[in-house]
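Justification of computing resources. Each target in the renewal requires a structure prediction run like the one illustrated here; the chain below, 431 residues long, is used simply to show the kind of job we budget for.
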Amino acid sequence: MKLFLRATRVFAAALAAACPMVAALLAAPAVAQDQPLTVDMTEVYRVGGASAREEWAFFGPALQASFDGAGNLIVLDGFNHRVVVIGPDGQLARVVGREGQGPGEFQSVMAFAVWRDGRFAVPDMGRSAIQVFSPDGELERFVRMDDEDRPVSSALFRGEIRADPLGDRLIARGVDGVLVEMVSRRNRRMGQATETQPGADDRALETLDFSGDEVVQKPILQGWRAPRPEPGLSSANQEDWARVVAAMEDRYFEPAFVWDVLPDGTIAWSDSSAYAIKLASPDGSVIDVLRRPLAPQAVSQRIRRETIAYHIERLDESSRNPPSTGLPFLTPDVEGRRRRIQERGFYHEIPVVLGLKATWDGGLWIQRRGEDPWLEEGPIDVFNANREYLGTLPAGDPPMPAAFGPDGLVVHLQRDEFDVPTLVVSRLREE
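Resulting structure tokens:
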């Protein structure tokens, strides 16, 4: 055996010396090879859509959904100021909340968080408080924000929050600075506030602790942001927010900040163009990094042209069938959006990672960019709870779930040509 290995090394060395190209290949770093993975997906039920028979199943345009440990699907329908709880059989269990100012009622809600025991918390910007509900839908706690130093209730102005599995806390992504500044200026004009302390920004996470009489914010971690010049908001015309928003908008392919929370409280996130999924303890200390040898792709002139053409095509399609809001001031400015698509900048390379989700048992699904990087979904790498790479699912088969539940349950959000949402609950089994 030793003689065979020595002979093999001698042959490789001789071949490399005779062929420089072979030598270069032998010295090149390894490139990741995907291990094909498939799953069997069986639909359990679907609710919603334009053809829904039950009144409770007519959902507004913006939904968030999550499972509890009993397999109930809990849905935040912020447009209709309610939370809908759907049993494992697809039948209505209860509707919680309505528009109003009384106990358990909502004014302005964007996101919610669900614990495995069935409790859920709903931050309400309109009431400057977090409302916490029991598994049977009863209001347990109404905890106000301390708005003396935070006049825009920035802690509640969130689209991404998770339930902390370790206690009575929420883990929240920070607020985009331009949104805070817009609300702050409005308040100053109305004589309501002079200063704003927004807390964590949109590339950071913090906890919202509601165990006491008031919600307490505490920063956890700060993600990386690609350097770029920022516009001077203080000198911008108050009425010229379209220019300010356009200047602060992420460039095409600028690395996103994507994150989730695992069942043991570990936080997983990606904030760069490399394949580097950081794992942090609940206090934000990095404890591990998941990597695969996949490199970012340079942005070519062809990619620039085809990316702009793709977004123009989508804009034209949506303008032919605009969603009906019933609100004239929400009519989209098609020409303005077209101009922003054409003038928007480009980051110099295409990030490998597009999104990530934690599974019910503590694994991770990591979605990558596809062959056409302007499309919104690519292949999905699957890691188990031991941080081991199991394989890669092909793009769109299945798409990334909106949420994972017990016993292989997942939910996907589908929309028809009129943007009417349908929730599809399925059961996954790895093959």
